[in-house]
Write a structure and sequence with these properties.
With about 375 residues, this protein is α/β, with parallel strands linked by helices. The protein has 2 domains: about 230 residues, Type I PLP-dependent aspartate aminotransferase-like (Major domain) (Aspartate Aminotransferase, domain 2, 3-Layer(aba) Sandwich); about 120 residues, Aspartate Aminotransferase, domain 1, CATH 3.90.1150.10. About 35% of the residues lie in helices and about 15% in strands. The structure holds pyridoxal-5'-phosphate (PLP). Pyridoxal-5'-phosphate (PLP) binds next to helix 3.
Length: about 375
Amino acid sequence: MTTTTAAATIPFFPPDLFEDDRDLLLDTVREIATDPAQRFILGERTARFEELLRTDLGAGDVIACGSGTTALTLILRAMGITAGDEVIVPAFGCAPLANTVLGVGATPVFADIDPHTLVMDPDAAEALITPRTKALMPAHMFSVMADMPRLRALATRHGLRLIEDSAVAQGAVLDGRPAGTWGDAGVFSFVQVKSFGGPGEGGVVVTSDPELARTVRMLRNHGQDGTHRFRHHLVGLNSRFDEILAAFQLRRHPGLAARLARRAEIATHYTRHFTPLATRGILPPPPGTDGRCYYVYTLLAERRDDLHRHLAAHHVDGHVYYPQPLPHQPAFAHTAAPGGHWPNAERAARQCLSLPVYPHLTDAEVERITTAVLTFPT
Ligand SMILES: *Cc1c(COP(=O)(O)O)cnc(C)c1O
């Protein structure tokens, strides 16, 4: 017998994330493949999934669509945001924050982030408001929700729409209010790696604005109203939802809370052990559970690349999200303020290192990861 398991690398993206659900996935495919209705998109399972999330969130409406990215696009389009308009987005985050805004012809305006929580700094955002500004589009980052109370107040004070990119924060709650329900509209993503990821592409728009909901519902299916086929009220797009994904997610939803709780338990363990490292160049995310959802657990390390190599040598796979801030990306630099600087975003891009935090990590693996970080010579 060989005992190589002790030295096996703990992966950052585990290939066995859905292993326990493989039979469920096969059953789901069979169920839909043999259903006499032969309805593969926007059927009754999608409607039930929308209703489940709507009830769960206490939201006015939930509209399932093709991805988290198109969910943002649908919201921007439904709000009438277009050429000549500006949308303030964080300078550090994923590409959809910029490319969805550019996709509707508007301009993303990049606001710097808070140096520790890594979410958009409301003061930086406020300084960028001009007569062209139509919306604020903050994103919850890694494990920390954006400062939604202050951003809400800012949007109200300046008469702006508030779009909440809650793609990674499903299940998070801030001041008793769920992520996704703070903005005029919010989104979730069900792409594989997200906390409620599934076997394919999908997303939702969450909103309690009935007019916005009605428009998003039409836009996702070529501007039709769901009653009159081939009558196109609006210039829409194809961003529909798959029945197999809906059935799979309906059946996995009851386990979501426990999986999120396990992520939070692992993160709490990490933070407890890593807090003393703050004076030695390794800063854990802010502790606590309010406004947190541990989609990703991210350290800020002054010697990030050394720590990354040290972890690899100890068979722990770390991951660097977003090694470049959005305004420095080749695709977006032309839209950014010339000569602009986003010092906190630039520092985050140099220092971020994420650790595995998925719910099926064993306690022994969590301990190995913790020890690997603690033995980094600082
Ligand atoms: C994943 C993600 C998206 C996009 O979701 P997709 O379903 O991959 O299109 C948008 N915003 C944030 C913050 C994300 O992490």
